[in-house]
Input
Amino acid sequence: IEFSVQSHSVDVCTEHNDQREVENVFKGVVLEDSIALDDGSKVVLTQDEWADKMNDLINTFQNICIIDDSSADRIGVTATSSVLDIIVDEIDTFVKEHSIFTDKITIPNDAVYRFLKQHCKDKLKDLEFRNSNQKLKIDFESNPLKISGTKIAIQKAQQEINQMMSQIDSQNHRVTKAGVDSLFSDSTKAQSIISPVEEDSETIIIV
Output
């Protein structure tokens, strides 16, 4: 028996006259399976990488597999029994690597968090942009920072943010001039003095 799997049918060539026996043999050779997609993995179907992966699998297993991604919550695979598990495992691995996950990075103290938020926004936005194909999003409006994206993107973000934090230096300075205490006792007045200095010098000042 020779056969070719098409999009909606299977072409069978045989010299056997018993159609039912041919059908039984065929049903034992061609199998179906599917990979379920949750909310975090549905985005995989919209990625260019998925189109490339699917075409690569179809070309590799030409005429012996069908990959159906027309459903929003599953990827169906029809293939011969000899290659079905291989194809399903490859798709499952791909889905896990390209699904969207969430994680958090806890900033060790308020001064470092304020520095990142006030002076590193452009760097964090650039980090997002460079990993936009991995769906990276960084919410730095609260501590811990919330990160979403593929596992690869989250790992890159964690590495770069940790590197940013490692480059932030902290020093203590005692000011003993007369009248300083009264000047900074009013938080509104103190902030009006400190804010321009922080902006110009790219520092965070905690009194």
Notes: The longest strand covers residues 30-36. The mean pLDDT is 83. The helical segments are 19-29, 48-60, 84-98, 110-119, 121-130, 151-166, 180-185, 187-201.
